[in-house]
Amino acid sequence: MTEFSGVKLPEFDTMAGKHAQAAGLLEELAQTLYGELRSAGLDTAPATRLRELAERVTTQAEDLRRRQRLVHELQRQKVTFGRSTPAGSFLEIPDRLEIAKGLLDGTLAGRAALKATDGDAKALAELRKYASRTGDAEFVKAFLGTLGGRGVTRSPGSFATQLRDAMNREDAGRADRLSVSGQKALSMLATALAKGTNPKDPAYMGAGFLKDLAKEGRAEHRTGDTTHSGYQAQALIWRAHDGKTPFSKEFMEVIGRDVIAYEHEQRKDAWAASKDPLGSAFASAQIPVIDLAGALGLGTLLRPGTQAGVPGAKGGSSVLDDLFHAAKSSREASHTLLDHTPAEWKTSVLDYLLTTRWGASLYLKDHAPFNDMLVTATTGQDATSQKLASELTKIVADEVRGAFGKADDGNLEIRNRETFDRLAPLSYPVARAISANIDQLSRLLLNHATFGKVAAQDMSYALVLAASHDAGFEALVRAQTEHMRAALDTVAPVGLTASNAERLGFTKADVKKFDFDEDGRVDKADIKQFLIDRTVAEARPFSHIVEIRRQVLIAQGLNDKKVDESLKTMVRDAIGLLPVPGAKQVGELATGAFGNLINTQYDKIAGAAYDEVAKQIALQISEHGQGLDETHRTLADNRLAVERLAEQMLATAMLNKGMLDGLGFGKQKFAAGDGRTIKRFSEMTPQEYSEFLTWTRAAGGSNDLLDRFKSTFHRTSEVDDYLDLQIPSSSRRKE
């Protein structure tokens, strides 16, 4: 709580003046005393102490003068408020100068915004100079307090009206100025609103302010000759949000949820009519509530980063699209919107948005805000993110299932193109949700488990949609690559015994688990058996992803041999090369080979979702300038690319676990120094790295592991079963 002091004018002016006068007299006295003591050959310490006192009084006097100037400015601007007492009338001012400055600037900014709302173009330009002050809590409170819920709601309408007037008059220069000024003002309002409606922020305005915003949001307003709801105007503020100061869950509880309910109330009858036989016959669209910029024909001109006359500036957004844009920067805010079932509703908001309202989302083709919010909400490792990811997967699987069937040749075909195209905008967020929970795919396929209400067949149909998106397919493969690397890392190292287990990060129980021949020591034969088990288990989800990608390419009439550029890059940059974050390098050759790539950066991302770890490691690989594997630059098949990744991972795992120690290299080009160690991977040429992989197959026995991976990877019967396909042998790709 801000502390205030009371001052009386002109007594305060008199005190400030006399304090400054006293400081000058003390300094003069100190100088005189110093001269006399020095002339008399006496100790000058008393003069020094007097000078120090003079300096303190001078500092205090300067502080009083600053306060005096601020008090007069506050009074001149009528920002201060007074209180009458038996002792006289007092002016209350904040104890700290920065708080008083925030109070002054915030009030002036709020007044400028109100003047701009009344059509004052100069005030709109004046408002821009306060844009940098939104980090100051006192400024935000004074700014929003001056505007109030009504002022916040009216401001976007005024900006929009002035811009439309300039465009109607074909005044390009004025339109450009108003577009830029309006964008700056809306960005400022967005940051202030995010802070002022967050109970955890010092700028919090209280629950009453949120209620006022909701009241004004539902109220009818008039902008020029256009009547609109307050939410249509507030939406322009949400869309101007830069994400740096996320909106709180409390904002989404009060405003966000009410906006969704408001649109539902306003449109439910019209949407229902658009879906009945008569409405469908007249091609009635499912139209959402459009934001004010769209209603006035301004498109994106009040959206930060857009200039008047720029191609695409005529696009528009719905009120909910703008809300989703504000919610996407915070997982908590996204969860608050999606993981909620309103009173008297039978479905969650997520279900409603994906089914009942989905046609409205398609109307403006403004998919980025909703998709981004879905990615934010479903890719965390917390329980709510995983719940929403499973719900998204199940809903999409149920919706897309009817779009596909079996062609005459037994492959997948699209039987309802309209349904597929209608759901296609969701392909990437679905891919990201599955990627963040890629371990669930293994559980479904290997253990016949469920992911929420998602069974293996549901996951397969959701993957059809997800794998149809190029970037989505890349995310899936990267996540499964990381999952396989993590699985291989769980295998114990060669030489593990009860005596060294704790030092190597294992337990005595692990020794018994991995000691297959029960001789008290984990040897190479033991490790190889467990590597085979992990390899086979990880090949099955890889097979599922790649075969479904192949089938959806066939269904779309595309080349089923297509290899994605992203997979070429993954192979070329050897994404399977580096160790798993947190892994201990047990093999004596591994430490030398990985060299300075082993550091605490990897530990920092341990525990994140597999897709996030994969992205971070890929970034670190690029930072180290690695691009070792050029053998498959001309890859033309996704299967060959994944097999190459598997080979890299298996060779790395064998190196990590000490299975290559003691084999000897002779005069291999990838050997370093006297031939007893391997060169650091970052120092190998592509040819040397290729020779290392060849040597690993021949000397280390990775051929057997790779063959087991391939044989499992090439079996596609599970995909055939889950997608109701049965491909005749004559039509099958040669294994």
Characterization of this structure:
This protein is mainly alpha-helical. The protein is 61% helix and 5% strand. The chain is built from 32 helices and 9 strands. The strands form 4 sheets. A 3-stranded antiparallel β-sheet has the order 1-3-2. A hairpin with a 4-residue loop joins strand 8 and strand 9 (677-678). Residues 1-7, 81-91 and 729-735 have low confidence and may be disordered.
Strand order of the largest sheet: 1-3-2
The N- and C-terminal alpha carbons lie at a distance of 73 Å
Rg: 34 Å
Q: Name the quaternary structure.
A: single chain
The mean pLDDT is 85
Our count of helices gives: 32
- The proportion of residues forming helix, as a percent range, comes to 55-70%
Strand elements, count: 9
Report the β-strand fraction as a percent range.
Answer: under 5%
Biggest beta sheet attributes: 3 strands, antiparallel
Give the helix/strand class.
Answer: mainly alpha
Are there runs of 5+ residues with pLDDT below 50, and where?
1-7, 81-91, 729-735
Q: What is the overall silhouette?
A: flat
Set out the fold topology.
Elements: E1 4-7, H1 11-39, H2 45-76, E2 81-85, E3 88-94, H3 97-117, H4 121-127, H5 137-168, H6 172-196, H7 207-218, E4 220-223, E5 226-229, H8 230-239, H9 249-275, H10 277-281, H11 292-295, H12 319-327, H13 331-338, H14 349-354, H15 358-363, H16 368-378, H17 383-400, E6 404-406, E7 412-414, H18 417-423, H19 427-436, H20 438-447, H21 456-467, H22 470-489, H23 508-514, H24 524-555, H25 565-572, H26 588-594, H27 600-604, H28 610-623, H29 638-656, E8 671-672, E9 677-678, H30 686-699, H31 702-713, H32 717-722
Antiparallel strand pairs: 1-3, 2-3, 4-5, 6-7, 8-9
Helix pairs in contact: 1-2, 2-3, 3-4, 3-5, 4-6, 5-6, 5-7, 5-8, 6-8, 7-8, 7-9, 8-12, 9-12, 9-13, 12-16, 13-16, 16-19, 17-21, 19-21, 19-22, 20-24, 21-24, 22-24, 22-28, 22-29, 24-29, 24-31, 25-29, 29-31
